[in-house]
Amino acid sequence: MEIAERRPLPLRLRRFRAGSLVPIVMLLAVLLVLIAVRQPNFLAPPSLLSFLGRSTPIILLAAGQYFVIVSGEFDLSVGSLVTAQVVVAARLIDSEPSRTWPVVALLLTFGILVGLINGLVTTRLRVPSFITTLGMFLILVGAVYLWSDGAPKGGLSEEFRRFGRRAFEDVPGLGRVQYALLVLLAVATAAVLLSRSDFGRTLVAVGGNPRTAELSGVRVWRAKTIAFVLSGLAAALAAILLGGYSGVSFQAGAGLEFAAITAVVLGGVALGGGRGSVFGAMLGALTLEMLFALLNFYGVSGALKSTVQGAIILLAVAVSSVRSTSR
Amino acid sequence: MRRTITVLAVGTLLVLTGCATDEPATAPSAAASGPAGSGTGEQSKFFVQADYDRELALLDATPAGPDGKPWEQALQPTMVDTAKFKKAGPHKICFSNAGLNNPWRQVGFKTMQAEVDAQRSRIEQFVHIDAEGKDQKQIADINDLLGKGCDALIVSPNTTATLTPAVESACKKGLPVIVFDRGVDTTCPVTFVNPIGGYGFGHVAAEFVSGNMKPGGKVLALRILPGVDVLETRWSAAKVAFDKAGVNVVGVEFTDGDPAKTKKIVNDYLQRYGTIDGVWMDAGAVAVAAVEAFLDAGQPVPPINGEDQLDFLKLWKDRKLTAIAPTYPTYQWRTPVIAALKILDGEQVPSPWKLPQPTITQENLAQYADPDMPPLHYAMCGCTDLPGYPDRWK
Lengths: 327, 394
Hints:
The complex is a heterodimer of chains A (about 325) and B (about 400).
Chain A: H1 2-6, H2 22-38, H3 45-70, H4 78-93, H5 100-124, H6 129-148, H7 158-165, E1 167-171, E2 175-178, H8 179-196, H9 198-208, H10 210-215, H11 220-246, H12 256-266, H13 278-297, H14 305-325
Antiparallel strand pairs in A: 1-2
Helix pairs in contact in A: 2-13, 3-8, 3-11, 3-12, 3-13, 4-5, 4-6, 4-11, 5-6, 5-11, 7-11, 8-9, 9-11, 12-13, 12-14
Chain B: H1 2-20, H2 30-33, H3 49-59, E1 79-80, E2 91-97, H4 103-118, E3 123-130, H5 135-146, E4 152-156, H6 160-172, E5 177-180, E6 191-195, H7 198-212, E7 218-223, H8 229-245, E8 248-254, H9 259-273, E9 278-281, H10 287-296, E10 304-305, H11 310-319, E11 323-326, H12 335-344, E12 349-350, E13 353-355, E14 359-360, H13 365-368
Parallel strand pairs in B: 2-3, 2-4, 4-5, 5-6, 6-13, 7-8, 7-9, 10-11
Antiparallel strand pairs in B: 1-12, 11-14
């Protein structure tokens, strides 16, 4: 693979090594310039920080999705998992502050469990992951409706909501620093460290060529299952932040799986696995949110969001196909 | 092989992306597509001038009936004779319910059950079938109930046109039929119970918002979804009021009744326009999310309307908002039971039975913002005198 990439590249597209951070950083820079032209005050620290805070859930999901995609799989269940978690949290907490921490612990466990099931079904029962996680998506959507009779019940306590809503006020030089930003910082650091660890490298190898990885003694099923668990865990954290931000909602997680996958692809991670960086995936999420903010400033309807996401996925896959077929 | 799977998966993804887009027909939100905000757009095709005029006139009408019991009052009633339905009790009353799929209907149904309990001496049996929001199920439900020896049938139709034949066939069976909430396209039921209606709601809210903001200010209108008559009328009356007041409606957006989406929309508008000077809503379910968007952005909350849901009333009281809450009162769920018993007694009843539609304002807020009731409760339930209050509604 390395040798193949060192050959002269006939297409302009191939100027950057696959998985390189250069394109995404450039795209982000272009968006920042466009936003600076249109809405200069957006770039002031307080408004930028609040933007970053609001983008945290999708960045977390992109980080989780990175581990799954780089190992050669998909996780379509994260959006419905977020919705399910928010609805479950509201019903269990039922506006009772003392139940906050037990429910937080339960949500994290629930996220890990869903990831574990996704992983085991995919690796042990050999069901393709987009079928496994699509099934999980439908199961969760159905279960939520069944359990709640179609209307959300209960309520989230203020203690639960503060994670996604509140902030350290008046931090010198920065102003309002949302709690979400701390979560983001912690998760981003952990994700980068993890992706550089042995496990992270193994995962990329598994995604690049599972057969070779298997033959060289890697327990592929275990690596992939852990990737799904990480994605589930990321969804649980995202659910806690999103539920906090907006309260009980049946659509808390609607469409998030696509946003996460688009972000990961935008960040230079190859669909099909084997190439990419988690930092790129998180930058991809930030870039995607930035793009939507820009569209909003230009008064473009939010309905265009899914079209933009679809176009990005198509384009990214087309680019990576062109690269690999001429390899 | 891997390539095939990837392509297949991406294909599936794209199809799903399409499916997951449930942002309902954003096309009609004309104002949303122009950056400068192009006002209120075209008038809704649901708008009927005569109905609008009548509803606005009813807002000022004095109701007939016992004081302090709006669920027994009627506006400009025309009485109908019901002697032919007179029957000795105790009775079996049947109810075909469109659904319990939102908090408003949950509160309403609890209120209806409590009314039945209050009348236990006269009601031997109360049969309730929930159509779960499905037309086909409700048609079958009504058919079922017709074979169960009901003395009176109450129907809260899921949709107007589709349920009309089912209601007509029930009328033909000779038992008294009472329709409430959403209507049907037939006059065969003995009476149709509902409050003043959507025009009244939308008008009251829009007048308040435009009257309490600075002249020429920017209004954001938030609607649940397009194409539902009771909601379309609310918006169309607001449009008339806003056009008359000459306010600048910078956006008309659909929220799907979802707090997450609502908060995002309000946030987007705050970023795009810097400030928003008034918020109009066609239903109160997401009013709290809209207010939170202003609070979290560190901005003053502009004049806004909600509904009589407790979470909004509490926030209004705590944060001292400039707000108003027109209602679509849940006490209307009591009236059909009362009507059924009157009809079975052979007493005259108003037809149509137009109930008063009170508005919660700063003056009477304290009376409704009961801190002990749950956030999704509707204050205008007229249920405080009913058996099991307040525990039944908690």
